[in-house]
Amino acid sequence: MARPPIDTDQPLSAEDLGPDPIAAFATWFELATEAGEPQANAMALATERDGQPQVRMVLLHRADERGFTFFTNYESRKGEELTLNPRGALVIHWPLLHRQVRAAGTVVRSSHEESVAYWLGRPWGSRIASTASHQSSVIPNRADLERRVHDLEQQYPEPPAPDPEIPPLPNFWGGYRLIPDWIEFWQGRRNRLHDRIVFHPQSEGWHPHRLDP
Length: 213
Prior knowledge:
By secondary structure, the chain is of the alpha+beta class. It has a domain at 14-121 and 171-211: Pnp Oxidase, Chain A, CATH 2.30.110. The protein has helices at 14-17, 21-34, 77-84, 112-120, 124-132, 142-155, and strands at 42-49, 52-59, 62-64, 67-73, 87-94, 99-109, 173-187, 195-202, 205-211. Strands 1, 2, 3, 4, 5, 6, 7, 8 and 9 form a nine-stranded antiparallel β-sheet that branches. The longest helix is centred in the first third of the chain and has 14 residues, at 21-34. The protein is elongated, with a radius of gyration of 20 Å. It starts with 13 loop residues before the first helix and ends with a strand. The model has no long low-confidence stretch (mean pLDDT 94).
């Protein structure tokens, strides 16, 4: 049964979140899932190239002490932007809970082994689609994409039993990890007097500050 929305009359403090923002994020993410957020792991990812910011929605795969991990096409526009400027920012918004989390920092590629492990867990159709797509490239029409998908389906037919290596991981696809310089927790309150707690890493751990709404 879905949880009711968070009571916005209740304040949010650094003590509520605890000393570890990654653990706090895990708790908030679990609550968002239990509350019935339609896609709790959807996040907006911002990158920048030549002073022109770009933003798009991607899916968070994991958040742990190493950072926030997502997967994509390395040759996509965001991949090119991250090669030239390996910095990014993200926001995850959970409207049912009146909460969001923001972070910004350096973006690095995840290990090949981690990319392979994630790839092997994806459905056959998703692996076919990711292999077929030259993400962000201009194409003449939809039929061109569908032809590439059809050709790959003929080359790598779906086996009767699950086979995670069909098709294999392409060399242009894999993971990124955003290593946060800071993480901000936002909770909506009445009359726009929202709570904002931001954590900055220090040598002895994370240090929280409260920000004006």
